[in-house]
Amino acid sequence: MANIGYFNDAKKEYVITNMRPRRPLSNYLWNELFLANLDNFGFGESFLRISPEERRVLFPCWDATRLIYIKDKATGEFFDINRNYQNKEFTKFECHVGIGYQQIVSEYKGIETEFTITVPTEGHAELWRVRVKNTSNEAKSINVVPYGRPAANVTTHLAYGHADYEASLGGLYYYHDAFAVDHNYSGIYMKASELPLSYDLSDLNFRGFYNTYENPVGMANEKLSNKGTSFDDSYCCAMQFEANLAAGEEKTYYVVVGISTGVDNAIEDSAKYLAKGFFEETIAEVKRIADDMDRLYVLNTPDEYINTMINTWLKRQISLGKTWGRVCSKGFRDIMQDAAGLAAFDGKMTREKIILCLTHQRPNGNPMRAFDPIARTPYYDGAAWIPATILAYINETGDLTVLDEVCPYFECEEEGTVFDHMYRGIRFLLDNRGARNMVLWGGGDWNDSINNTGYMQKGESAWLSIATVKAITEFCRICEIMGGKEDLIAKVKEEQAVLKAAILENAFEGDQFIYGITDWDEKVGSKENIEGQTYLDAQTWAVLANMLDKEGLNKVMQTVEDKLKCSFGYVQCAPAYSKKDEHIGRMAYFIPGGYENGSVYNHGVAFKLVADCMLGKADVAYDTLKLISYDNPANDNSGVEPYVVTNMYLGPQDPYRPGFSYYSWITGTAGWIYRGVTEFILGVSGDYTGLKIKPCIPSVWNEASVSRVYRGAVYNITFKRTGNYKLIVDGTAIDGCIAPIFPEGSEHTVVCEF
Amino acid sequence: MANIGYFNDAKKEYVITNMRPRRPLSNYLWNELFLANLDNFGFGESFLRISPEERRVLFPCWDATRLIYIKDKATGEFFDINRNYQNKEFTKFECHVGIGYQQIVSEYKGIETEFTITVPTEGHAELWRVRVKNTSNEAKSINVVPYGRPAANVTTHLAYGHADYEASLGGLYYYHDAFAVDHNYSGIYMKASELPLSYDLSDLNFRGFYNTYENPVGMANEKLSNKGTSFDDSYCCAMQFEANLAAGEEKTYYVVVGISTGVDNAIEDSAKYLAKGFFEETIAEVKRIADDMDRLYVLNTPDEYINTMINTWLKRQISLGKTWGRVCSKGFRDIMQDAAGLAAFDGKMTREKIILCLTHQRPNGNPMRAFDPIARTPYYDGAAWIPATILAYINETGDLTVLDEVCPYFECEEEGTVFDHMYRGIRFLLDNRGARNMVLWGGGDWNDSINNTGYMQKGESAWLSIATVKAITEFCRICEIMGGKEDLIAKVKEEQAVLKAAILENAFEGDQFIYGITDWDEKVGSKENIEGQTYLDAQTWAVLANMLDKEGLNKVMQTVEDKLKCSFGYVQCAPAYSKKDEHIGRMAYFIPGGYENGSVYNHGVAFKLVADCMLGKADVAYDTLKLISYDNPANDNSGVEPYVVTNMYLGPQDPYRPGFSYYSWITGTAGWIYRGVTEFILGVSGDYTGLKIKPCIPSVWNEASVSRVYRGAVYNITFKRTGNYKLIVDGTAIDGCIAPIFPEGSEHTVVCEF
Fold first, then answer.
1. In this complex, which of A212, A656, A660 lies closest to B228 when CB atoms are compared?
2. pLDDT in tens, B621-659
3. Which chain B residues are Cβ-neighbours of A595 within 8 angstroms?
4. Nearest 5°: phi and psi at B47?
5. Nearest to B70 by CA among B149, B135, B152, B150
6. Is A26 helix (H, G, I), strand (E, B) or coil?
7. B590, A160: Cβ pair inside 8 Å?
8. Spatial contact of B752 and B740, defined as CB atoms under 8 Å apart
9. How far, in Å, CA of A191 to CA of A170, rounded?
């Protein structure tokens, strides 16, 4: 197996020991308005979110974003400790991926350096801690030079910019006071816990025009240039310090690099961030928040990796989505799904996200594709995602008041209750049907990349029709819980039956569902097709929507196994399109194996995992999960971070890099895998009337345990394989699979025999 | 003096011998639709212009854009010949900046390599020639690897892209067939004059993920990877060849890298470009065109540098502007001025440019700020530039028919003759006046960066008022030439007199003109101001517009000498603004010394040179020219290319890099300096009735000669200092300063004593 590193569960760290993995491994640090995306070298972008449309970048995503240079004054030898550009033979070189920090540690010729980066829980700055330790047997005099490449130019007009040492700050300040810019974040500053011996503000001086980061002029010289700069497109921030360390002695420097509205603001902020203990308290605070969240669901199975992911890392990944969506934007369906995933940890947040999403629903019931910034592409699936999230919220919290909360429709005077929003969504889906009585495809559905099949308002999406069937079931369940809605339930159930019949008549091919029918009356995802014959989601959602009896669904899922399985997961569709097809859209222009066009698109694989569980196929579900794990021996050097799930592995039809994961973190897969494992494999989920416990545990596990907070009470659940399902709550066997609701703060022992 | 290189006039080359100058030195290669901007390493952007709004990039502007790697197979040592990333001790390393080509030559351990880049006169490709020569005494076997980093991704969606060796092409092909892209240039190709031994299409394979261009994996290996790639963001193009050279033997490879609409297009184009002799013929053809242009005005003065610039390099710089405007856009006033500069070489082109510009004039007479793409900023000065260019065209060609040509107004049904356009422009200026009867400032004038003084339609620009006075004089001269327009002349002259009086009353401070008065009734460029007290253009244009008697103008120009002169030119204004001022706009947000805010903005210095000549101050004019020359000892390491003029030197108030030139080439300075030298210092200019010869030659020159084509006849003019002006044409002294018009093709000897 590819050697990458190891989990240190006690510290909630992943320790990267192979500092040159197939691709750099990413971590995110963030607060509500500031985000840093750092790789194992500490390189990567950080920025302040000013508005949905505007960001102020602190460090762009480029090489040498942040470096810690060290120079042994006795020998004159220098190197950077976190990228090791010079390929020195470090005796230690690792990156600790932490919850809320990134820590690179290296050791070379008796100097150990630790470079830790964090982001304060409020504000717009990065906090760096640099610890140097003399691990040799003799005294050493060393220069320590924290260095970075900030985005000091706010606009492209270099003439607005200048930078210099600012005595009132005791640090470096970068001015870019541009005319007619609509925010005040004109400045960047760097300040350290002590005054620098020398400094640089431009790579013209520090690196030198024709030098590289391997041999910067500034490090070769005794001092940095102490020169300011203007009209520059190569700003840097560098400060030189000197540590005279006895054998074994260490010294710590704190550095803050931040965005500021002016020098006064920089003075104020940096004083706060450099206050004694602030750095350590920040990391402790982020960890406390994570620990509080982690305690809400603690899993213990024979699969250590799954435990670690569920107990810590998927929660971390979901937290990123909670605050930042997909970072580049907030998709309606994405946030809705994330919100459902969050319900078990943070019901309040789920409720907030539901309201936030619904304010981006048009009065006709169809939501915007995305917000933050707004994407007006006329996708038609948004409404189908609303009931599931509201139901998850109600099941988890028991809070029905959300349904009465009034919130506006998008860009109009109208407003309505959450229930009204949800029902208008159902109506949008039911009232926009095609000639075959299936739901119109419009500009697209979950599959963003089938985006040219329905503009003429003729194409019909079988998947969206199936999703509508599912949504109606959830909607009716919500109505049942609310009570007094029998007429409405009867009405929509009748409509659901008609829709279901239309799907079975037009989209069912005996052992598979097609994906849809285009404006030109062509089937997509049908046996009739030469390419794109079978689509994963149409089959898995048939299970989720209970479109057939169990036998029928098993047959459909067997098609998935036969047609879509590969050695590292299940592909979105097969065979992938190799020819451009305007009647399909973007997807049929992607390379075979890319994104929806036949990649192992893990969001879809997570749906499949849930579908397997719904059909009771525990081993298949578990195998599915292991196929897409980073340590699948058939794809163990995919590039993926072991501590997150990736959105996609390039599919087996990619001729060059099948199995490769390009990026991770920002994918709805995290929430779905989390729910798949906790609510379907372990089978513990809120059910309005109590905590439902109905596991679907793989045959290789004979026992497992879950500690789960539900409505404020703790359920300590032990699973034991006996061959007969039995639920024992606080020593008493109960009928059915639902443990009762208990008072907040109480703790209960549950045994679930299976 | 900073050692940069030397001119080789015989080859029309500048040879850069210092390959690490203060900043890389730039050259442009182009045809009508394709442009490459290359520095002395051969790095830099190239692109195809698809439409005013859209470009297709071939090579972006990034490091290692193009490299030629060489490997000595006997030793295994490899290096790149054009950037020398490894800092090897090359025995030869120089760049020949040619007319239509860039040629880098290096020699290391017995291998001399010449890398020449050109652009065909039609089409969208770069042509490379690589010559390797064994300069040692023994046989050598070497690998030659041309390498580049093309922009193979047309969109940001990597999944559209793949690349591989394409057998039908016999070269590398990069596909990016994206959905819904509005042009067909999806592909990039690389093909060479022979089939490669091996190849690479991705830096993942060639460079290696963690390697640099100093030590690419591909060069360390025996062969390149021969692997295709997909979903890639690090495409490269590299081909390995092997040359087995006896001592003294050489071998030449031709390589084409182009943009294509498909493989068939690539096959067709590459066959054309790789045809025997095509490369050499392309360079010869570009040189022929340049030679033809150069012959139209040949200067010989005691100042070799001025001769070289006038005879070759300024013409080249003007040619770039002719085709590409300012590359990033085409400013109305910029193209109008360039067109005037062109009249002496290419009257037809001047006429075309006039018409092109006028189609971007609104029916109210005010032109757009820029086109290609359209810039709608409401600047008010556009119309003031029209008469001068039309007059220059008429004076040069004698062609009055241009005035009757009908062309449309911008974005409307209306159209009008060129004369109508010109007069509507005059009317716009005269009819949009403020309370003081000076011309309204609107969104700005020549000084783009005073852009917040006039939005309320109250601020008045003194400079624009002066420019209007000048424009009316030119307009009246055109009317005179046309004849029969006495009433119109009388009318506008009266209006001109009123305007002039208003300027003298409101904008004249005895020894200087102010620049204007803002919406808030505040003076700009006045003795009253603390910053921005004196503006260069207000004074120089007072001379150009003949605002005062000679004594008055001399006094005004003395203010320029006293207040605006520095050791490397004249600043746009002084003192520069150090404080933001919303009532001024962008300029007062720039760093002191940047752009209009106190830089030596050479366009303005060129106006000053002309003004000096108009006042007969030959030595001052010449000194002015020498102050901004690259070889001014007070600023001889400014970064500027010796073979072009720069738009700006950072002013003396810049605290960090006064005198630094950030970029060159794309500036109207070229045309104005050219006209300043040829039409004012040498004083040879078309005057409708004949060729005016009225020199203003500096006292350090006692003689000079000009060979000049005027209306198809050649005037071989010799200047001799005698102290008395006398014009002898074909041996006969004539009255006045205008040599007669001669038949096309005839050649005449003119002696001008002065």
1. A656
2. 999 999 999 999 999 999 999 999 999 999 999 999 999
3. 159
4. -160, 160
5. B135
6. strand
7. yes
8. no
9. 7
Task: Please give the pLDDT value at position A1.
Answer: 65
Phi, psi (degrees; rounded to nearest 5) at A348: -60, -45
Which positions 441-460 of A are in contact with B (Cβ < 8 Å)? Answer: 451-452
Delineate the domains of chain B, giving CATH numbers in brackets: 5-289 (2.70.98.40), 684-753 (2.60.420.10)
Two tokens at A248? Answer: 């074994």
Find out whether A739 and A729 touch, Cβ atoms under 8 Å: yes
Q: Output DSSP code: residue A630.
A: T
Can you give the pTM of this predicted structure?
0.95
Q: Which two tokens stand for residue B610?
A: 């002309």
State mean pLDDT over A91-115.
Answer: 98
Query: Could you read off the pLDDT of A126-185 as tens digits, one per residue?
Result: 999 999 999 999 999 999 999 999 999 999 999 999 999 999 999 999 999 999 998 999
CA angle A441, A445, A447 (to 5 degrees): 125
Q: How many Cβ atoms from other residues are within 10 Å of residue A110's Cβ?
A: 17
Cα-Cα end-to-end distance for chain B: 34
Task: Report the pLDDT value the prediction gives residue A409, as an integer from 0 to 100.
Answer: 97
Interface test with A, best of B43, B179, B213, B448 (most A CBs within 10 A): B179
For position B325, what pLDDT does the model report?
A: 85
Shortest distance, CA A402 to any CA of chain B (angstroms):
39
Distance CA A1, CA A490 (A): 56
Statement: residue A625 has pLDDT above 70: yes
**Which tokens in the block code for residue A420?**
């009204």
Distance CA B754, CA B751 (A): 10
Q: Give me the residues paired with residue A54 across strands.
A: A51
10 Å CB burial of residue B487 (0-12, 13-18, 19+) is exposed
* Residue A555 exposed, middle or buried by CB count within 10 Å (0-12, 13-18, 19+): middle
Count of beta carbons in the 10 Å neighbourhood of residue A723:
6
- For strands A713-720 and A747-753, give the pairing: parallel
Q: Are B359 and B407 in contact (CB under 8 A)?
A: yes
Q: B719-738 burial, b for 16+ CB within 10 Å, e for fewer?
A: beeeeeeebbbeeeeeeebb
Residue for token digits 């005279």? A244
Contact state of B230 with A589 under an 8 Å Cβ cutoff: no
Q: How far is CA B415 from CA A161, B65, B350, B422, in A?
A: 45, 47, 20, 12
CB contact B583 to A (< 8 Å)? no
Could you say which of B230, B591, B650 has the minimum Cβ distance to residue A594? B230
Q: How many CB atoms lie within 10 A of CB B133?
A: 19
Q: How many CB atoms lie within 10 A of CB B337?
A: 24
C-alpha B450/C-alpha B447 separation (Å) is: 6
Is B396 in contact with B686 (CB distance < 8 Å)?
yes
Residue of A nearest to B586 (CA): A179
Which amino acid is present at A158?
L
Distance CA A460, CA B376 (A): 44
Quote the tokens at residue B419: 């004369």
Check CB contact of A43 with chain B, cutoff 8 Å.
no
Interchain proximity A158–B585, CB inside 8 Å: no
A621, A610, A571: which is closest to A593 by C-alpha? A571
Q: Please, what is the average pLDDT of chain B? A: 96
Strands lying side by side in the sheet with A691-693: A684-686, A691-693, A738-739
User: Concatenated DSSP letters for B417-477?
Assistant: EHHHHHHHHHHHHHHSB-TTSSBB-BT--SSTT--SSBTTS--EEHHHHHHHHHHHHHHHH
ipTM over 0.90: yes
